[in-house]
Amino acid sequence: MDMEKNINSREQSSDIICGRNPVIEALKSGAQLDTIYINGSGGSLNLIRRLAKEKGIVVKDADDKKLSRLSGGASHQGVAAEGACGEYVSVEDILKISRSKGTNPFIIICDEIEDPHNLGAIIRTAETSGADGVIIPKRRSASLNATVFKTSAGAASYVPVARVPNLASCIDMLKENGVWIYGTDASGSDYCDTDFTGSCALVIGSEGFGMSSLIQKKCDFMIKLPMLGRINSLNASVAAGIFMYEVLRQRRAAE
Fold this sequence. Notes:
Radius of gyration: 20 Å
Largest sheet: 6 strands, parallel
Helix content: 40-55%
Structural class: alpha/beta
Oligomer: single chain
Number of helices: 10
Distance between the termini: 61 Å
Strand order of the largest sheet: 7-6-5-9-8-10
């Protein structure tokens, strides 16, 4: 029993709000909430869903086991809210960064990266390789939670992250601003033969399935890493790091 309590306390984060009234008050007060997990419907749970929708906060259905883990075994009354560990920016804000530096945009787009450790690692490498920002979708994606901040080794405090409701529409907007979209897939061309010195956004697909078919169609180019061993894929954050540093290498060589 003690071991179970220890596991629960490790999984519970200090940015978790549990219980119906505390979550409602947090919503009304304008607290920075990232995701709300709900088990059930009716009464105050429906009110929470409505308030969250009005504020653009993601709501996910969760079973009692998930809520108990989040709350560390405390009474959750069917709802738990995860506070945002950082503020999201707009895609326009990310584009302004490159304009202010006088450089071509360099953006990372994460297509349904659901593992917070992977997202944190991608943000960390984005910071060290000089990327202007990271874009993630609201749904089916890890978000700026405590795990992401820890895994990023603090980089999440410096890299602007935009969270968009529709990734395909976001890509269209980037194209309108002169940004070329580079998808990463085994069907693409060798990344070393690709010119990244212009305005570019790298799309990193999900851990298990890669990029969605819609996002693939939106890409201007497809690039790949050479695979010489028996394993035909890399961890998403590792692959992202290789691509990002190739962008950095080419841009430094062109200076």
